[in-house]
């Protein structure tokens, strides 16, 4: 490749933006494989684009996005690959299959030539048997692989369904279990003051399972870069509040936190909600805007 | 420790090196490391996707797919393309444009190195970068600013921009490059 014919600067910027037509893109990629100078320039344009991307107005993702991602992550656990020796590879099986094909072809020729049959029957019979065994072995291996793949797919689906079902069961149990702590969280107001349309939250919590379902309504809108955060207030004296998830209300003031990541066995004397910076906090920032004890 | 004091304490600032360490932990299947990466970069990813797609649900789809890509194949980034934050911002824009145009992701460009404009793992520095970039872009000639916006965030190709604005193709290309060079100079200063 002639690296002297560098890609024009304008086109390098277009390359970084993925705007070059297909053929020009392919040519550029070929050139870039050999031209460090142009590669460096593309890297600089990529950096410029990254800086420009930062001019976007910043928004926090929906409160449940993190939980959704972590659920998907948990479902796609990393697995240690099976040892290569345990499953014969294509390369491993190829030497067996290749002679088999040749031998099959020779067998057909042999059947068309009866004169040779009597003379070489003994030796050909051996080859024919070997070829037959190879074919059967190959077919069996192929079938085993297909069955194994089907089995893996079904197992994966079953595992996923079981996980979903268990989760749903846990949510249901948290909401309906007679032993679940059920608390309504309200804005603390003096006695006698009507609490119509005031923010309100309802928490259902199973301490031994660390399961929590929280639903809130009439929440006030938040300032940019702020989020509500739910806290479990432990009954154990001296134990700090446990963060139980961040959430933002929708346009109707409703929000929920379902099955946040909580330690098991924390008995709650109540729940609280504070307003924190986006991303949440490790310690509640006063004041508590909703509380239920 | 006193509670108020703890709330006000500035947390230890992360570094790109920590990004590499987190990616190595992700490679080993450490879900907590994945959560930390999400906490650090989800806002950038979501914001860029939302800016391009202008739809919260679609933006979250892009967000989820990009972080799942990191989970599935952190090695694809370990080649140290300069800055995880910068790479995520660019990849998010590309994936969002692909989603707009309903075309398959094109990964060749994403495999190129990226010269980081700064330490995007550090939230304070990231905020400074945002402010600086906004100021620089605000001072660009209006035609340059608009052309870059149409190209980067709206995903309009140089040909489409030329057709829409009636400007010559060469002018459109030059405006895009000039705007990016101005931004680069400001960050190098």
**Helical stretch count of chain B?**
10
* Main beta sheet of chain A: 4 strands, antiparallel
* pLDDT averaged residue by residue of chain B: 83
Looking at CATH, which topology of the domain at 12-117 in chain B would you report?
A: Rna Polymerase Sigma Factor, Chain: A
Approximately how much beta-strand content do the residues of chain A carry?
Answer: 15-25%
Structural class of chain A: alpha+beta
DSSP strand tally of chain A: 8
The dominant shape of chain B is globular
CATH class of the domain at 12-117 in chain B: Mainly Alpha
Radius of gyration computed on alpha carbons of chain B: 18 Å
CATH superfamily of the domain at 12-117 in chain B: RNA polymerase sigma factor, region 2, helix turn helix motif
Please identify, by name, the CATH architecture of the domain at 12-117 in chain B: Orthogonal Bundle
Topology:
The complex is a heterodimer of chains A (293) and B (189).
Chain A: H1 9-16, H2 22-34, H3 36-53, H4 65-75, H5 90-111, H6 114-176, E1 181-186, E2 200-206, E3 211-217, E4 226-234, E5 242-247, E6 255-258, E7 268-277, E8 288-292
Antiparallel strand pairs in A: 1-2, 2-3, 3-6, 4-5, 4-7, 7-8
Helix pairs in contact in A: 1-3, 2-3, 5-6
Chain B: H1 3-8, H2 16-27, H3 31-53, H4 56-72, H5 75-78, H6 84-101, H7 123-139, H8 142-152, H9 158-165, H10 169-188
Could you provide a short overview of the structure?
Chain A has 293 residues and is α+β, with helices and mostly antiparallel strands. Helices cover 46% and strands 18% of the residues of chain A. Chain A has a four-stranded antiparallel β-sheet, with helices on one face.
Question: Mind explaining what this structure looks like?
Answer:
The complex is a heterodimer of chains A (293) and B (189). Chain A has three domains: 45 residues, no CATH class; 88 residues, no CATH class; 112 residues. In chain A, the strands form two sheets. In chain A, strands 1-2-3-6 form a four-stranded antiparallel beta sheet, with helices on one face. In chain A, strand 4 and strand 5 form a beta hairpin. With 293 residues, chain A is an alpha+beta fold. Chain A is 46% helix and 18% strand. In chain A, helix 1 crosses helix 3, helix 2 packs across helix 3 and helix 5 packs antiparallel against helix 6. The N and C termini of chain A lie far apart (74 Å). Chain B has 189 residues and is mainly α. Chain B has a domain of 106 residues: Orthogonal Bundle (Rna Polymerase Sigma Factor, Chain: A). In chain B, 72% of the residues lie in helices and 0% in strands. In chain B, helix 3 packs across helix 6. Chain B is globular and about 50 Å long. The N terminus of chain B is likely disordered. At the A-B interface, helix 1, helix 2, helix 3 and helix 4 of A face helix 1, helix 3, helix 4, helix 6 and helix 7 of B.
């Amino acid at each position: 490749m002639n690296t002297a014919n560098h890609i024009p600067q304008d086109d390098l910027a277009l390359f970084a933006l993925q705007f070059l037509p297909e053929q020009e893109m392919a040519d550029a990629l070929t050139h870039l494989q050999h031209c460090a100078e142009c590669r460096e320039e593309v890297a600089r344009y990529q950096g410029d684009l990254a800086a420009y991307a930062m001019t976007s107005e910043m928004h926090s993702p929906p409160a449940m996005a993190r939980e959704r991602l972590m659920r998907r992550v948990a479902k796609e656990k990393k697995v240690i690959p099976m040892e290569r020796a345990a499953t014969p590879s294509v390369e491993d099986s190829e030497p067996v299959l290749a002679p088999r094909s040749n031998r099959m072809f020779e067998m057909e020729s042999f059947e068309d030539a009866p004169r040779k049959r009597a003379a070489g029957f003994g030796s050909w019979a051996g080859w024919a048997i070997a070829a037959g065994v190879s074919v059967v072995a190959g077919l069996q291996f192929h079938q085993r692989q297909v069955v194994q793949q089907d089995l893996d797919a079904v197992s994966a689906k079953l595992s996923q369904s079981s996980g979903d079902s268990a989760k749903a069961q846990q949510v249901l149990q948290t909401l309906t279990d007679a032993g679940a702590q059920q608390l309504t969280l309200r804005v603390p107001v003096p006695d006698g003051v009507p609490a119509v349309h005031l923010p309100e939250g309802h928490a259902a919590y199973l301490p031994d399972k660390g399961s929590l379902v929280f639903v809130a309504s009439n929440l006030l809108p938040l300032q940019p870069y702020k989020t509500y955060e739910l806290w479990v207030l432990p009954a154990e004296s001296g134990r700090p509040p446990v963060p139980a998830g961040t959430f933002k209300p929708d346009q109707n003031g409703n929000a929920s936190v379902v099955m946040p990541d909580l330690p098991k066995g924390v008995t709650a004397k109540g729940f609280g909600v504070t307003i924190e910076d986006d991303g949440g906090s490790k310690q509640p920032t006063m004041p508590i805007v909703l509380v239920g004890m | 420790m006193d509670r108020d004091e703890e709330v006000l304490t500035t947390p230890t600032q992360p570094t790109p090196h920590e990004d590499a360490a987190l990616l190595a932990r992700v490679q080993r299947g450490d879900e907590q490391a994945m959560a930390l990466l999400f906490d650090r970069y989800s806002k950038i990813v979501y914001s860029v996707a939302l800016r391009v797609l202008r739809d919260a649900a679609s933006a979250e789809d892009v967000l989820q797919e990009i972080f799942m890509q990191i989970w599935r194949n952190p090695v694809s980034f370990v080649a140290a393309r300069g800055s995880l934050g910068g790479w995520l911002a660019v990849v998010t824009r590309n994936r969002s444009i692909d989603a707009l145009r309903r075309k398959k992701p094109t990964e060749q460009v994403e495999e190129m190195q990226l010269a980081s404009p700064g330490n995007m793992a550090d939230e304070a520095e990231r905020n400074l970068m945002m402010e600086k970039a906004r100021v620089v872009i605000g001072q660009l000639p209006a035609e340059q600013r608009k052309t870059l916006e149409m190209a980067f965030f709206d995903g309009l190709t140089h040909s489409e921009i030329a057709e829409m604005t009636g400007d010559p193709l060469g002018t459109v290309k030059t405006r895009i490059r000039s705007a990016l060079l101005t931004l680069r100079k400001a960050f190098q200063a």
